[in-house]
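Action item from last week, closing it out:
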Amino acid sequence: MLGNTYGRLFRVTACGESYGDALMVIVDGVPAGLSICDADIQKELDLRRPGQSPIDSPRMETDQVKIVAGLLEGKTTGAPIGMVIYNVDRHDIHVQQYKDVKDLIRPGHAEYTFFVKYGEFADWCGAGRASGRETCMRVAAGALAKIILQSEGIEVVGYTKSCMGIEAKPMSFDEIKAKKHSNMIICPDEEAGEKMIQKVLEIKDEGETAGGIVEIIARGVPAGLGEPVFDKLSACIAHGLMSIGAVKGLEFGAGFEVGCMKGSECNDIPYLDENGKVRFKTNKAGGFLGGISTGEDLVMRIAVKPTPTVSVDQMTVDMEAREEKMLGAITRRDPTLLARLIPVAESMVAMTILDHLMMWRGYDSVQKFEHKW
């Protein structure tokens, strides 16, 4: 299997499956001299951990992280950081549930494509590497990226923008940051958040699951990050966010609304602020021009699909018997993925920004160009 490494200078390599012994990650590019401990990573993982509310999976994983490499007396050494999380809630009854249907294509899951690629050797237990369980290690690596970005004055904040057509009202960055954890669906608009929760619970009672939209905002990103053409910052962020299994759509700034605009309506007009710095009166571009950061907030929204496991009978195909069959899923699932996916999305954005910051700083130190702006 290829494709388990992300980034160039801040480089993350992860492994582990849904029902394997453990999940692990190695992070290259962490500067020496940082003070970090397990608790710094754990607080981010606790935001993704299942079994904490009626709108997430009942799987009772502790997600306790252990830093096993790259530290000496509480300080990073410059060596790769290694972290491990052991799976603890993987009982025989749950394994048997997957074994009973291992030859059936679960609609919305990756059984078919994994079978095409890996044949009879594909991991059928809990979707294996295709499971959302692998995102633990994205969050662990993202926690490191956030710590480094914080020292640069860069923050990445995600929240539930909408769920099943119920939308949060527009709010300032500071309001979002202060109020996003006021409810279990991570929506800063408390009234809309409660409506979202009730809608998800209604759908859960039907044996169904709910989708929605998550917005991520990165503040404090300096202008100039991103490489023209193939490695635009926006393109690399798109790569990171679209690599999350449940994400089916992405837009930056005004997004698909630009298809209904005239050029003058779409353009963000520049001006000079009181310090003589270039700013923009609007941010329809989402903080990017030519794929390079402008210094304005990076704003992006992702469409999160409903959890594909439902308690509604669906027709499928038995890959071994080569015949159509009825499937009634009984395994554990999240009624909605929104709240638990937010720290994953924040992590992918944080890792990408840090990677580009390190690339730009390195390149710029060699070109020795005087930046007048």
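Closing note: Residues 5-367 form a domain with the Chorismate synthase, AroC fold fold (CATH 3.60.150.10).
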